[in-house]
Each structure stands twice: as structure tokens, then as C-alpha cells.
Write the C-alpha cells for this entry.
Amino acid sequence: MAPASTANTDTTSRADYIRALAPQLASYRLKQIEAALYDSHIRAWADVTTLPLDVRGALGAVPWMSVAEAALLRSRAGDTFKAALSTADGLLFESVLMANRRGQWTICVSSQVGCAMGCTFCATGAMGLTRSLTADEIADQYRFWMYWLADQPAMEGGRISNVVFMGMGEPLANYANVKEAIATWLRETDIGATRITISTVGVLPQLERLLTDPTWPHVRIAISLHSVNEEQRRAIVPTTAPRFLERLADWARRYERTLGNRRHHVTYEYTLLEGVNDTPEHARELATYIGKTGSSKINVIPWNPVAGKPFVRAQQERIDAFKRILLNAGCTVTQRKTMGDDIAAACGQLATTEAKR
């Protein structure tokens, strides 16, 4: 089990606390401190033996972890684990660990407690937004699962190879903290930028911002599209901006010219809702639109049931027919594998009201 949180109730970062407590520390000491945070064998400041005793003593007032386990669930298949994590101010959010095709592990991280985007098929959207997570609360989801894997004898040597921002919240609505957390992982872990994916409904001002931000980490971008009809898209994603599809296509072409290459490309995510957006005509319209964006990557997602939602999961035959039309139009198509739906850990199912073990 990961160490319990002793975090503060404000939003001061761990780095700010360290700088305030130890302004005289040499830069190499600061690097030792950050490296210790990402060593699975070290669980407290007292264990950081690379530091002098007086420094370890001073660091005792600094939170070691910003989150703590409130509950943890395991899927029947044993390939997915979901943790309800508590913040220092008593809020709950969820984070998911999934086995991947590389024989390693992917973390699905959250960027906010709840979400303001209001996607009508999503459990998180029904929560509304409580607040954005701090950079520490985002980054510490990696550390939580790193410690947890290290403590599982049957998973000895289990490596976290990928991170996806597909948990609770809209990552680009928390731009600065998401960017800071990613920068920390790129410095302190062996995960490369192309193994990190940000999934966004398409917050256009922030998409524009990352095109010209020299400090933006060149991770992969996935746009949650769900419809290429403006009116229908707004019915599914109520926060859709005016002329969204036109403006998104323009942005995507500029992204491909500016940042795109074989490893950096935009992927479009499309959740299939039976009778709503999964007909052959919808598939043909989607293929035509994608062709205008400079990309051809589409990830179709079977809808995962959420209590109280009026949708129906598309049958696999309908999904296959939808995919065939896209493939025949020259699109590259993948289908999201449903994992952890028996513990409400699958795409669109994350939500917290109270922690239940």
C-alpha cells in the first residue's frame, strides 16, 4: 500500500515547500530529492540516505505524498485496478491501472475532481467540476501506482510504460498543472513523451496555446469527437464552441505541419452510441471530415454503461460495419478495448460520491 498522505490543505507545491525550507540547498541536492520521490524503495524523507540528516529533518515538514488511498478495486480479469484517492482537503477522485499489450502497465490519470464539460454519456460529466488537481496530485498518481506495484509480489518488476489522461476531468482546462506533472515524469521516469497521451474534448484556446508554447511537452493528443455534425456534437458535448468542427480542422492541419510526425499525430476518439451516432451515414461523414484534418487516425470506443444515462451500447456487428466504412475510406481505425467495466473503471465510468472498498 502507498504511504498515507500528510499533505497540506492549500495548493502550495511540494517544490515550493522544499525551496522555502531549504533555500540554501545546492542544485544537486534538489535533484537528489526529486529522484528520491520516484524511487519505489523510498517511502519517507527519513529513508533518503543520500541526504544529510539535517536536511532530512528539515524536509520532515514537507508532504511526502499529496494523495492517499481511500479504496481500491480489482477487476475480475485481474488486468485492471481502480483506486479512489483522497486529497488533503478531503476530496475524492479516481485513478486506474491497466495491463497493456506490451506486457506492462498503463495508468489512466485524472486531472480534475469532476468535470465541467458535461458530456452526456459520461459519469464524470454528471458530477460537475469541484476543482482542478494540483501538479503534485496529478504526478503522485504515478507514484501511488509505482509503490503499489512494488508491493505486489506477483507483479514484481511490473513497469509503468504508458500514461493516458483519460480519467476524470478535462486536462487542457488544467493546462499549467498538467504540463508541470508531465515535465516531472519526463525528468524522473523512463517514460518518453510519445508514451503519454492527453485526451481532450477540444478546448480550442488551449489547443492554440500549445502550438506556440516552447515548454509544452510533445505528448500525443487525442480529440474526443463523437460526432461531425455540429448540432449533434453539441447535444453530446454541450460545451462545444461555435463553429467547433471547422476551427478544429484548421487547428489540426496546423498541428500536423508544426508538430506532427510519425510518432506525433492527432487521434480522434469516437464513442459509439447505438442509434445516435453509429449509422453507416455517420461513418461516411466521419471519414470525410477526418480527411480534412490532415490525419487519418480514429479510435472507436464502445460506450460503457452508466446508470441513469439513456444510451445503449452499440452491438459489435454495428461497430464492425462502422469500422469497415472507415477502413474502406482510407482511415486508420482501432477499437478501444473495454477493461475494468465490472468495477466502473472503463472509459466514461469514473465518478466519486463516497469511498467504498
User: Anything to note?
Assistant: The longest helix spans residues 135-150. The chain has a mean pLDDT of 90.
